[in-house]
Amino acid sequence: MKKEGEIRIPSGCAISGILNKNGERINGEDIITSIELMRDRSNGLGGGFAAYGIYPQYEDLYALHIFYDDLVSKASTEDFLNRHFEIETAGKIPTRKKKGIDGEPLIWRYFVLPRRFKLHESELKESEYVARCVFRINGHYEGAYVFSSGKNMGAFKGVGYPEDIGRFFMLETYEAYLWTSHGRFPTNTPGWWGGAHPFTLLNWSVVHNGEISSYDANRRFVEMYGYDCTLQTDTEVITYIFDLLLRKHKLGLKQAVEIMATPFWREIALMSEEDQKKFEAIRAVYSSALINGPFSIILGFEGGMLALNDRIKLRPLVAAEKGDTLYVASEEAAIRVICSEPERVWSPRGGEPIIGLVEGRR
Amino acid sequence: MNYVIIGNSAAAVGCIEGLRKNDTKASITVISDEVHHVYSRPLISYYLAGTVTHENMVYRKADFYEKMNVKTMLGSKATAIDAKKKAVTLENGETVGYDKLLIATGSSAFVPPIDGLDKQNNVFTFLKYDSALDIEKLIDKDAKVVIVGAGLIGLKAAEGLAPVSGSVHVVEMADRVLPMILDEQGAAPVQAKMQENGVTFHLGITAQKVVDKDRVEKVVLKDGTEIACDVLVMAVGVRPNVAEAMAAGVKANRGILVDENMRTNVDDIYAAGDVTEAVDVTTGEHKIMALWPNAYLQGRAAAYDMCSAEHDFDGVFPMNAVGFFGLPIITAGVQDGEDMQVLSTGENGESKRFIVKDDILVGMILVGDVDRAGIYTYLMSEKIPLSTLTKKLTDDDFGLMAFEEEQRNERLSS
Amino acid sequence: MKKVYADEKWCLGCGLCNVYCRTCHSETNDIVKAHNFEEPRPKSRLHVETGEKVNFALQCRHCDDPKCVTACITGAMQKDPDTGLVTNDTDRCVGCWTCVLACPFGAIVRDEDAGKVAAKCDLCVKSGEPECVKHCPNNALKFEDRE
Amino acid sequence: MSLQLGWPDYMVIRDENRCIKCEVCAKQCANEVHKLDSDYDKMMADESKCVNCHRCVALCPTRALKIKVNDLEFKPNANWTGSAIKEIYKQASSGGVLLSGMGNTKPYPVYWDKMLINASQVTNPSIDPLREPMETSVLLGRKPEKLEFDKDGKLKTKMPPQVKLDVPVMFSAMSFGSISKNAHEALARAATDLNIMYNTGEGGLAKEFYQYGPNTIVQIASGRFGVHPEYLNAGAMLEIKIGQGAKPGIGGHLPGEKVGEAVSKARMIPRGSDAISPAPHHDIYSIEDLRQLIYSLKEATNYTKPVSVKIAAVHNSPAIASGIARAGADIIAIDGFRGGTGAAPSRVRDNVGIPIELALAAVDQRLREESIRNDVSLVVGGSIRNSADIVKAIALGADACYIASSALIAVGCHMCQNCYTGKCNWGIATQRDDLVKRLNPDIAYERLMNLITAWKHEIEELLGGMGINAIESLRGNRLMLRGIGLNQKELDILGIQHAGE
After folding, report:
1. A178-186 and A11-20 as β-strands: parallel, antiparallel, unpaired?
2. D380 and D490 in one domain?
3. The complex's ipTM?
4. Mean predicted lDDT score pLDDT of chain A
């Protein structure tokens, strides 16, 4: 049976996200409780979390989370890491034994900075340098897979139910101002830890419920710009599109949304002349970045989160607010289980983004 | 308003229908010496031949008068007209007042003086349904019919009677049949066709006398030829019935003189149909154009004028369609005159003859091939210069294609 | 009223209108039977005129003041005051051809075979559109109300 | 030479029981095959003149006619086939190049028919186009690498000119001259009302067609017929025609008989003169020359209209396409070797060029590898026969498709392939007045509208089935395709997996 990356595997899912807009950090218990409630949206073949603000002591270092199939791959990958990065500190990510979680790979964490001369030699921006190194490892080092590469954030994921994964990674011991999580229901997978969500690149993390029908159009588009879609997953390509638009093309979140869930022509026809021109330009230039087919996604980033549905809302997405906390989830119950009396609960329309930003951050 | 019509044939119907188009309320009275519901006079020969039933003799349906709200006084002969008092006196002394009067009294057969021809009960004219009904009683498979006159009426009588009688002899003073409308070329095939169907002709000769006891038994021609006779039809000509009108001061030559709106010289008195002499629009001359379609149109024109209604009446000119034993003949306009150019074509007994004056078609005779004749009629009535046409009149495929594009398209989109 | 209008610009002179007119006015209502077997042979009520550059198919114009009706000696030819249709009552028609003489379009057809009666376009609207219009391969005939 | 070694290609079969001698066949056959014999009152046929165009068959009201391929055969020989032998007879008798109309007739693989489209099941809902919006519009033109917005979210980037199509289909180049004015008018009107484009071909543009400008592509070909500033500015898009799928490497030849007054005016050549397009543009002997022409045209039209460059699909298409993109073309049009033509030497038509499917896949992949695919639009043509072909073309990577043969078939073409004789019985590929009028543009327009509307519906259905509601999400989405009966090399070039994988 082919594993993720050798074949494209469709899946359905549950997603959940919690953001404290003041940047106050909470531990992982709530997000586990929330995603656990949606257990029947998962099938035990994948679960994961992304957490922002968890490594304040290494705030300026890239936290590389890596799965190794074996020590051989670890050795060769570390050789690569050593050549390209200054490794501030490294070690196994702490885990605990958990029923239902087995077959786990070696799970290592490195806090790194690019080697000065290498970075200089590459004539790349630092972030691009790091991204390319990640692609390099994931594309060429068999048995190694970088599943998290941002600063002061990290992804935790694996094969199993998400709540079990969360407890396996002892997330109650981490504190973050933004948590996202994902429970997976793949229709066909050998259960590979790298294939679980969230998918991340640098500070971007994406959890996604859906199966985008525009996948190959999106993939072939981003691959023109140096991205290598090794996993063939929706989250991977969506993450890269965010990275391309937000980081490389320096567009705002709003524009990214206007591109990825662009208005219908019939809606554009009703807009002002200026907006018509704008959207015509968007649909001309970024037509291949339109995400088509059913999806609800949560993009996590340093500055907050963005939740978005496809244009005709073929996947569920609910949002709620209480105080400074913003909740999004596939189901309202998954919010209410951790926030009994939300001040406001709503269901955003297709293509209408929910953006939560953290004070003082980007 | 009170309209009175004397006569009950095509002109009367044209007048009634014209009046009712413009005035649904006025009183209309029809006075006729004939007792019949309005019938089609030209069908008499068909009736005798048995091709038209009594029921189908009617020109308008049985409820015509009722529907048109017309008062009829049938079987009442009008004997006098008082133009001053605006009243018509009937045979029974009754008077009928009018506001507007149409004289549509038609014509009567002219019976020439022939020795011995007097009051016999087997001598008929062929103008009225009553005569047809009388003839019918005397006709059987052995009946010998003699017809004097080979004009339209005579020949129609011959056509109608030939199939139902023993023999039909036609005596004509002229040297050909239909001398008034056909030239020799046109007349020959007609004569041939009739002979094929059992009609015997005595041309260029007149009937000198009849031999009779209480009925005519023989007709003797000038050359002494004797023709046995059970039924004698006199069809040498007709005379408009103008006497009563003239007595009232209406001007007439042979027929009542009318203008283009069918007015006579007397106020509120109009005349239409066979009784009139109207303007032939192709020549501008007054003449009697005793033809059914013209009578209708004239009656209707009179009606419109009586109501002071707009009417695009183009006037009339002689035109006639007849047929004998399946050989159709169409004639229109004049047949001869000065400065006329004649174009003709035809073969196998079919012929077309066109009379052109100053680039305008003024007359035609079509024998046999009469298809689309109306286009020629149109050329005549509209006086369309023939030089504007792209085809010759004698072309086999003459049609609307002959007209210039604009005119043609106007016709096609009408 | 709705009438059939010929557009000479598009008429190909193919004569299919004649074929379908004849069929429509046949006893059998079958093209092959109508043309090859039926006696008397049904008549088409159209005239297709063909020229070098233009062709057109012409049929009764159902005039407002039809000359054929005023000319008719028997009263067989009538214009229906409600529908505007000019029809000939073939039971009463004696085939005198006065209508042929009167029609300025030459649109009346002599049907000598079917008992010597005047045959003319009756707009055969039983099937929605006249047959000639329905079967014209180039839209050269239109059934329209242009008044 | 009276010696005729061949025999008529077709047999005219008339059912005497059904023939009503209406002579419609005789009146409608410009080749004068049918004739009413008045002596015997029978319809007769001269089969040697028949080209199997089916005009008579279609118009025969009693379905009394059939045209069949003459089944007379040579002794069976897999090498010396009947057509091979007959072609030799023809050339031995005429001494001329064999001419043919329309597209390649040889049994080369049609890759469209070897690719299958995906549909959603369970994991991803299919979308019902009757209930949900379904977008088939595309924008053709050069795209900047990225867009810039100001801090209020307003667009800062100045966009190059784009042409918007409501359906990713355009009527490809067919010159007024090769096709009749009525055919041209029908295409122009339908393109306008469908909000797509039609292409003037290399025949210039008659003044009366300027009204369709917003939906017109004006073509500039090697003969430069009818090209002048007003012409260049008359349309919404320009196209430099380098080559044509049916005859790559060959120029064009419109025989003088087809150059009547209107054609002469539009082309700016004398009446009755042959219009000969050279094989190459004599001002383009290399890629840098092309760049100059592209920019000359842009200058002439003040950078307000996208410029397309059309090439025939040949072996080296990917590299050529890359060069064209870099030379400044906004749109690259590629015409496959099954594309049609009014006239082409048969040998060229049947033996030169490559299938559009392979060229498209290779060009799209190459442009992506060079990261310039998003800069330009890619239009493909050359025997797009139905909406599924379009869906497959777009999934392979095209922005839009050109159709010509399909459009002509929609208005009556029966693919008899005798366009070059000028005696098109359907009034399409002819300038003979009596034949031209057989194509009533009102009818042809309506049929084109119907065809494209029908295809649009089908495209929407197929898109919906794939769970896609905007056609741009299909572009280059090769995962939606699977090959069937293809070898690995073909799959690799097409960039698709085999069905079942």
Report:
1. antiparallel
2. yes
3. 0.86
4. 92
